[in-house]
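Hi L.,

You mentioned the student needs an example of a multi-chain input paired with its predicted structure. This one should do, with 1252 residues in total across all chains.
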Amino acid sequence: MRTEKPQTAKVFSFHGGIHPPENKAQSLQLPLGKPSLPSELILPLGQHIGQSSRPLVKVGDKVLKGETIAINNGFLSSFLHAPTSGTITAIEERLIAHPSGLSDLCIVLTPDGNETWTDLEPLNNWQDISKTDVLAYLSEMGIVGMGGAGFPTQVKLQGAHKNPLTHFIINAAECEPYITADDMLIREKTLELVAGIEILQHLVEAENVIIGIEDNKPTAIAALKTVLTQRNSDIQLAVVPTKYPSGGEKQLIQLLTGKEVPSGQYPADIGVLCQNVGTCVAIHDAITQGKPLISRFTTLTGDALKSPQNVEVLFGTPVAHLLEYADYESKKLSRLIMGGPMMGYTLDSAAVPIVKTSNCILAASKKELPAPAPEQACIRCGMCEQACPASLLPQQLLWFSKSQEFEKAEHHNLFDCIECGACSYVCPSSIPLVQYYRHSKSSIREAREANVKADLAKQRFEARKARQDAEAAEKEAKRLARQKATTNKATDAKKAAPAKATPTAAAAPATNDESKKLKVDIAIGKSKLKKLQKQLLEAQENEHVEEISNLQLQVTDQEKAIAALEEQLAKTPSAAPAAPAANTEKATPAPVSDELKKAKVDVALIGVKLKKLQKQLVETPDDQELKDKIAAFEADLKAAQDIVSKLSSNAQSSTNATAAEPKAVMSDELKKLKIDAAIAKAAVKKVEKALKKAEEIKAPEADAIRQQLKEAQQRADELEKALANPETAAPKAAPEKAAPTAENTDAEAAKKRKIDLAIAKAGIKKAEKNIQLLKDQGKEESEIEASEWPKKLIEAQQKLAALEAEEGAPAPVEKTAEPVANSEAKAEPEMDLATQIKKEKVAVALAKAQINKLNKRLESTPEEAESIKQEIAATEQRLQSAEALLEKLIHSQTNMQENR
Amino acid sequence: MALLRITSPHTQRAGRRTSWVMQMVILATVPGIVVQTWLFGWGTLINLMIASITALLSEAAILAIRRRAVGFFLKDYSALLTAVLLGVALPPVVPWWVTVTAVAFAIIFAKQLYGGLGNNPFNPAMVGYAIVLVSFPVPMSQWLGVQSMIPAGETLSFMQSLQAIFHQLPVIDSYTMATPLDGFKHKDLLDSQAAFSSIAALQGPSLNSWLWVNAAYLVGGLGLIWLRIITWHTPAATLGALLVMAGVFHLFDPSNTATPFFHLTTGAAMFGAFFIATDPVSSCTSNRGKLIYGAGIGILIYIIRSWGGYPDGVAFGVLLMNFAAPLIDYYTQPRTYGHKKAKTGLKIGEDN
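Structure written out for the whole complex:
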């Protein structure tokens, strides 16, 4: 194709289209008019798509013709220039030419009548300087697309290089009836147009340059042909059949390239760029003469005008001034339209100014454009479907729009409607189809916006909740840290006693902790990264431009953070191996509680870390991702806790081995104390409960129980004191002196146990009674099960079993312990083991009971679920450790017995 | 100045309103009506008058009950079109009450009770026709014969037609004869060749009379296509499917089936394809949908003619396909500009 260079390009076809009366002849009878200067020029700051321009002038400033009076305000914005010399008399809200009929900020310029030009600086070296500079120059000249949308030209040209540009199309189709502004422009400024196209081609370097023009403009076509032949130009001329809407960008692209712009994409995505002829001329004037965009060709037409014609008009000229110029008859005027009859919009008032995109003023009489006929029922005749250039099913869309089935309307591609009005034009039932579609579209958009808002509100709420949780977690971490500090003192003291707590031993677990922390951090970071990447992908799919860049930044940050953490981790292992070595070499049995504490500290540290990350997230301005991230962190924390609990149980099993050795007597004592304290506390609680019950039923035993409670509390307090001051407790708990205390404890514990036992038995009886009652009432089995009694019964039975185990335990201990104690000293460890086993058994039973209790509470009070769950986890940990210990102990006992 | 403020588009194609569409369809039936009157006497025209009056009265009554603008809706000519289509479809000397029943049922039940023009899922004329066909089979099977074939040797005069329709015509039997489709349906054990040589209804003049009727409706239908009131898709698909069905079965079993030409030129083949199946309200919307819809009607016509209980199957074929039209619509959406492929079904939330 390129080799022979035909002057005319191949023309394809598009679906549908209509042939409304052209009505173009009226405005072509008179030559191009030049209206006089109006008394004032009204220059809206938003004459283009995008941000309104920023005014550079003040009221009272004198400006010259072509002087910049407003500059661009951001990327998608444009410059504005004074169309003539004069004084700025106001910067205020004026009615503007907009479908909404609203006012907007305008610069009002009173001309001085001198038309004094400012210094013009043409860009004569446009072929030599960089294209970016040319684009910047075009931006400063205020060039925007003059076909209708007013898209800033430099932005469009920048976007054109998205894909290799195959077609550069100059839109000269002008398919709307009545409008002849482009036709006149081509006739008047053929050379400028072609030169402008050549400048643009230099900028975009397209494979094919095609001018698309409808065959109803023979004069313009002839003029173009002449110039193109004279210049021996590469530009092709494609004469397309007259059919509305062939001038629609998508339709013209289909006509000239046979390609369709994919739904939701832009022509640049398929390597096509469209420019209006007006824009090309404006670019030529700007570059070769240095003239900014201050005027345009506009068609004045309609039956209400006595002398319809095309005029070259300065921006800001009020429409009323032009109507005067074209001799309008106010009696005849019934509808004033800016743009054509198919896609133009009505004006409320003739006071509005001409702007960069005003291609036509249609002053129609009533006879010419009568009021719409009353809407009749749709008979699904399908004429709209035959006319639709987008191959939609307008009658189905109408049906869905009327019944507000917006999902179905969207499914039928409502948003591919270009609102050309062809369907409404042909509709025999006079149905305002386009208006229905606009309404549906705006309803759908509104619903989408409402959804987004709702989502944002939800995210805000969740972010707040997460922040509060984080604060709570921080408090908890601090509390744990404090606890650790106090217990650390205790262990330090203990370690000091055997003088084995060497710095290396302390350092080893520290490095271990460090690496663990790092690993957890990395895990957290990686999951966060995954989340972010997923979000980024989603954002890219949905084309949320702002989010994409934001997310991309976050992703890279996260990747960096992970890399840093991994590096750190790589360094730590060198120190880490020393830890186990030190442990084994020195054979310093870390006390069980110590290891556990370390694990807990780990959890706390992760919590702190989580908090820190959450804070970071709060600081990031983009609310969108918060929810997901925080959810991820919480999951991570939970995972970390699991890991920690596993680690700690592992650690325990390893340390338990050493703990079982006689050397661990001290810690054993401590443990015993703890267990005693726990038992005592439980006893206190139970007694309290019993007291409550007794008070409720006004039982005579209440006083006795109260007495018991006091005793129990005392005991618990004592034990706790002892526990809090292990230094003082330790000597007391020394094997020799332990005997009397233990005896004491045993006696009191036995008493309490008996009370507990009684209570538990009473509970069982009560539950059984209630169940029996239910059965007697003839309730079904399932109903009984649904009631809480069977549960209570089981619980009570468990409790009883636990208590009985406790009850049973001390007795045999005493029985076996006495003879053993009387016999050889060898037997001492065995007795020790036996007591330990029993204690552990008690601990296991206790923990199980507590888990049960907690589970029950969890069911009844779901609002405290988090804290209860934590408690359960802690208890389970305890249970695990106790079981592990028990197993060890039994094992060693059997071993010992076998050895004997 | 008080300027009119509306959104685009501001102009509309002049003249071509719904009433114009209806009028043009009515006008397109004129060749068929002329041929039918010429062949079978005044009965058709009297039927048309009865049907039109009934239709307008029923429509006006229901509109009044529904508190709608009676004049505005009567002027859309849709009721009149239903009446015309029914009037030409009913046998020429069918008793007046059959016509009244058919038309009143069509307007009141098949159209207005569904919400009036544009909301009826079924073709009103065919609903009316089917109702009287199953309710009054005897008068509905009394078609007149061409004058050269019947014992009376002449067509009914205007007065005789009036008498036959409003009272009773004792000598009516000498004017009626079976239609070719009827005759072929009741050939019983005869093979095709024997049937065409022995049965009166299958003789030249009888066949030719129906050929003329069908040709007249074909002309009217082509006029509608030329006016772009209907598209070629539905009639072409209907006739094409009928042709293919008849052709295939005739090829395999020539002794028991009639030729495709016979099927296309007898009964209501052309009338159904161009005037009944193309009713836009109850048919499919997209071009592909119209092809499927029309083909379905053609196939059903052949099936009912060959193996059904009625000599012709247009009414039931159309009504059965009316059921399917909405479904077909969902699966035959055209490919929208900028989309790789057409969407089908109604998978909400899916996007392509």
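You could point out the following to them. Residues 30 and 220 of chain B are 7 Å apart (CA to CA). Residues 19-177 of chain B form one domain.

Best wishes,
N.
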